[in-house]
Design brief:
- By secondary structure, this protein is an alpha+beta fold.
- Binds to type I, II, and IV collagens.
């Protein structure tokens, strides 16, 4: 019986066939988009596909989910129409497209799919029509009628004037000597054509677009008795030069040619692979300042980074871009490639002047503006593109500009422009030293910083790193934007001016007349030594006004009881360093007294136990001080603790009463 139970699933699987035991092959992106179009068209009957048509053009696209809801292609509005899915046709009087197209040979199928011009030119050759009508198995990428009509007149004339050589060769280049369906069309593959075994480049993109030598596949997988027909939107031609060879023969790439040679990237651009080169023209190089250009051209590492920032890791034809998408360069940066109507854009700019120049190892798009990566820029150049121009101007005014433009490895802690909304400090020796303390002596990356790390500044100070749940701070200033890592320097955008620590907590309190009563209280409570030694403290420091606001009797009682005073003061001291940028909405900070302080921040106002802080982030070498306008009181004693205290008091009273009773007895009463 047990054996039967084990064998039953196997018997069922064998009876149901392979489909029951194995998942079917994964659908290609094109097939998934076609499936979505079929899903959107199903209310109109069987085998109906929803198609998006660009208003004012004949361009049509099978729709994916995102495009369906946005109803836009390259930012232009579309209308939805419903057509028979590839391979099906209408039947009079019936809904949808219930009938499969009848199978016929390749030649006749050309007319069915809307490539009658290809059919006509096939007729003009002596050899090709018999081949398309005869036995065999072929694939033809057939240009649409519109594709033939858009050819330049001189090109078309040269083809039709020599039909048995030029036209025949052109048509044979569109053919493959076997059946190839879309599920076999892989990104970056090459198919061998029937013209001198020349390669046809295939790219199959994640958005479902398939290109053939950068011509878009319009309708695919039309079966014929002797092969398959795919309709494409361009007449394609043979490709013979690699990317490097195209750079060498084009006059507009004179500066690029010299840069590639100097960087040693010519080996990459003439080798195997499938790349996209966003090729800067001579005009693009002329647009940047001569000083910047000469600096980069004279620095092999910066030059290589610059050129790698113009090379994408895979070939990308213009037809593949129907909406914005992120692409990665060989430099490791991300570019936003998009489109606006017929124009391609890079990072939102329409700087591509000529597109889809095919090479044997990829595709070239001409661009009229250099894409300089951060890794090839100075700190000055990085700051020019960030919201820290005011701080950088201060460095220039203070005569410290060489630190931001030279080859010194530094990290600049640059406050946002908004920090200076009330004005900038005067440039004097103190300000200059403060600015030097905004320069770290090494080139850092924030992702490698850790809590408690110390950083050495050019001004001679040691700065501490504090890492909180939602912020990363250096002393009182927290990072407000992603790093920008330049050639030699890194830019950290900070949310405020840095205030380096100037002494211990006790030094800070003694140096500020507002805290004279607190200093005396700390000395009376015996806490001076603790606040002078190394440690990590957050001190909520009551000002003199805070103490004076207490009832005189209560204040005198507190100051006269060293133990109670120490307990109250310890409640004002947290056991870690918490700067205001690390507070968030609410932090419960454990005090040295044992109870927790509730510290919150809203609209740049810090509160402790719901009391507003008068001044935040007074930095000390062993902590941070907040000035507050009231003396904080620990929470009321919990009921259990009060019960224990009452029990102890009762016991003590009982003991005293017993002793008094014995005393009376001894005395004869």
């Amino acid at each position: 019986m047990a054996l039967l139970v084990r064998l039953l699933p196997l018997a069922l699987a064998l009876a149901l066939g392979p489909a029951a035991t194995l998942a079917g092959p994964a659908k290609s992106p094109y097939q998934l988009v076609l499936q979505h179009s079929r899903l959107r068209g199903r209310q109109h009957g069987p085998n109906v596909c929803a198609v998006q048509k660009l208003i004012g053009t004949n361009k049509k696209y099978f729709t994916n989910c995102k495009q369906w809801y946005q109803r836009k292609i390259c930012g232009k509005s579309t209308v939805i129409s419903y057509e028979c899915c590839p391979g099906y046709e209408k039947v009079p009087g019936e809904k949808g497209c219930p009938a499969a197209l009848p199978l016929s040979n390749l030649y006749e199928t050309l007319g069915v799919v809307g490539s009658t011009t290809t059919q006509l030119y096939t007729d003009r050759t002596e050899k090709l029509r018999p081949e398309m009508e005869g036995p065999g198995s072929f694939t033809i990428f057939a240009p649409s009628n519109e594709a033939w009509a858009s050819l330049p007149a001189e090109v078309l004339d040269s083809l039709v004037s020599n039909v048995n050589i030029e036209l025949l060769n052109a048509l044979r280049y569109h053919m493959v000597n076997r059946r190839v369906l879309t599920d076999e069309l892989k990104h970056g593959m090459a198919l061998t054509s029937m013209y001198q075994n020349s390669d046809i480049q295939i790219h199959h993109y994640p958005n479902g677009i398939v290109t053939v030598n950068c011509a878009r596949l319009l309708k695919a997988d039309h079966h014929a008795t002797n092969g398959v027909v795919h309709l494409i939107d361009k007449v394609i031609s043979t490709v013979t030069n690699n990317i490097q060879q195209i750079i060498e023969i084009e006059d507009t790439f004179e500066t690029l040619r010299a840069a590639v040679a100097a960087s040693g990237l010519n080996t990459l651009l003439e080798g195997d692979g499938q790349f996209t080169l966003l090729a800067p023209t001579n005009e693009a190089f002329e647009k940047i300042p001569a000083e910047t250009l000469n600096r980069i051209l004279g620095d092999p590492e910066a030059l290589r980074d610059l050129l790698n920032n113009h090379i994408l890791k895979s070939a990308m034809c213009a037809e593949a871009i129907v909406a914005g998408m992120s692409v990665e360069t060989l430099e490791g940066t991300t570019l936003e490639v998009g489109c606006s109507g017929d124009m391609l854009t890079i990072n939102g700019k329409a700087i591509i002047s000529n597109k889809d120049i095919l090479a044997t190892n990829g595709v070239i798009h001409y661009i009229d503006e250099l894409l300089i990566p951060d890794s090839a820029k100075t700190l000055f150049e990085l700051a020019a593109e960030s919201d820290v121009s005011t701080a950088v101007d201060l460095f220039r005014q203070a005569g410290l500009g060489t630190h931001l433009s030279g080859n010194e490895r530094v990290t600049l802690l640059a406050p946002l422009n908004s920090v200076f909304k009330d004005g900038t400090p005067n440039i004097d020796a103190r300000t200059k030293n403060l600015l030097l303390n905004h320069l770290i002596k090494e080139q850092l990356a924030s992702k490698y910083l850790y809590h408690g790390q110390t950083l050495n500044t050019l001004g001679g100070k040691k700065l501490r790193v504090f890492i909180y749940r939602n912020s990363l701070c250096i002393e009182n200033s927290c990072i407000a934007a992603h790093d920008k890592r330049g050639r030699y320097g890194t830019l950290f955008t900070m949310d405020r001016m840095l205030t380096p620590p100037m002494g211990t907590v006790m030094d800070v309190l003694k140096g500020d007349n507002r805290f004279s009563m607190l200093v005396a209280a700390i000395q009376s409570a015996g806490l001076t030594e603790m606040l002078n030694r190394e440690g990590v403290y957050t001190v909520f420091a009551p000002t003199n006004e805070a103490f004076q606001a207490m009832p005189p009797g209560e204040l005198n009682k507190l100051l006269g009881n060293a133990k109670e005073l120490a307990n109250i003061l310890k409640y004002h001291i947290g056991d870690e360093i918490l700067v205001s940028g690390g507070i968030g909405s609410l932090v419960r900070l454990k005090s040295l007294q044992g109870d927790k302080l509730e510290v919150s921040s809203k609209n740049n106002v810090v509160n402790v136990n719901k009391e507003p802080v008068a001044e935040a982030d007074i930095m000390a070498t062993n902590g941070v001080v907040y000035a507050i306008s009231s003396v904080l009181q620990p929470p009321a004693i919990r009921p259990q603790e009060r019960g224990d205290e009452l029990a102890d008091s009762a016991l003590e009273i009982f003991k005293q009463a017993s002793a008094y009773s014995r005393l009376l007895s001894i005395s004869g009463y």
